[in-house]
Amino acid sequence: MRSLLTMLFTGIYISMSFSQNYDESKVPFYTLPSLLVSGQNQPIKDTASWEHARRPELLTLFSNYVYGTTPKDFDSVRFGIENEDPAAMNGKARLKEVAIRVYRQNKSITFHLVLFTPTAQASPAAVFVLINNRGRSHTDPKRVVQSDFWPAEMMIDSGYGIAAFHVSELAPDRKDSYADALLQLYPEQLAADNGMKAIGAWAFGASRVMDYLVTDGHVNAKQVVIVGHSRGGKTALWAAAQDERFSLCISNCSGNTGAALARRQFGERIAKINATFPHWFCNNYKRFNDNETALPVDQHMLIALIAPRPVYATNATEDLWADPKGTFLALKNAEPAYALYHKKSNLPADPPSPGHAILYAPLGYHNRIGVHDMTRFDWIQFIQFARHHFRS
């Protein structure tokens, strides 16, 4: 009987701990950590102090307490073209399937990149790179399956290249096997409380993709867009924050520990994400379960780390779990970092109406009518956002 009661009360406690708030009136009062005040309480007034003092400080805080430290050491990265079709999509595109091999201390791992570039233009093309956290069929290089999640034909017809790699080859998205790929090269990360886990490994992979793209003559390496949906959207932000070679970042429905503010405690919270996906973030992040106010950073700071490069974030009206308002407010509170570069944001004081996209600004946003997904509507806005900035 005692065991039964213990189980019952434990279940009630867990249920209460993980209950989620969808009522704006129940969002607690919160104060965001100051973006433009250093840890030594010094005001940040120009790009020099941002780039040499505050920005490195924030990267260290996110590394130590949220995403884990990203290793910089490896012996080499090598690329091999495993398949090439210069007349894919009925001659509209060049296809390359690239094996990317990372070597360290007599070990290696391999993951794969699918890349289409348009043949209609002679000059190198801007390329969108998707961090694919869904089934491989969505990014089918043979184009037997054509998914709106990765609308390759539409992108080629619009004059853009499109690429993708799959997260499972860098860190399987399972708590019992996430360490079976890239982290085999970095076992010390597993022992460290600030060691990277799956999302850090996926971001590491994005940078190795960038290492390849700078070598491909059909790619404009100064116009590479990193794109992610959901957990991939969290990864895209972290990858772009660290690797300034990504010229534009798109984070689609990324929610908690993505583009949404943690301190709002709306929708998914830190305790829930750490319990459900303990393999995503570093061990130190668990210190902030049900304790968001103690976190030394919040997600407006992650977005600010990408400044002055453009960032586009999205939500969906039926995806309150990802906190649409909190995502918009994170973008809004990142504006001061962009202002240091004289980048004027056109974000209004309040979120735009559903289906209305804010495109012609360094910080873009829309809240699509629908569910947690990445759709053709989203990609159309991504194209317009990129086209504006790449022509500017």
Structure in words:
Strand 4, helix 4 and strand 5 (161-166) form a beta-alpha-beta unit. The chain has 392 residues and is an alpha/beta fold. A nine-stranded mixed beta sheet has the order 1-2-3-5-4-6-7-8-9, with helices on both faces. Residues 1-17 have low confidence and may be disordered. It has a single domain (40-391), classed as 3-Layer(aba) Sandwich (Rossmann fold), CATH 3.40.50.1820. The protein has helices at 2-17, 47-67, 88-91, 152-157, 187-191, 198-213, 231-242, 270-276, 299-304, 324-333, 335-340, 376-391; strands at 76-87, 93-104, 107-118, 125-132, 161-166, 219-229, 248-252, 311-316, 363-368. The chain has twelve helices and nine strands. Helix 6 packs across helix 7 (231-242).
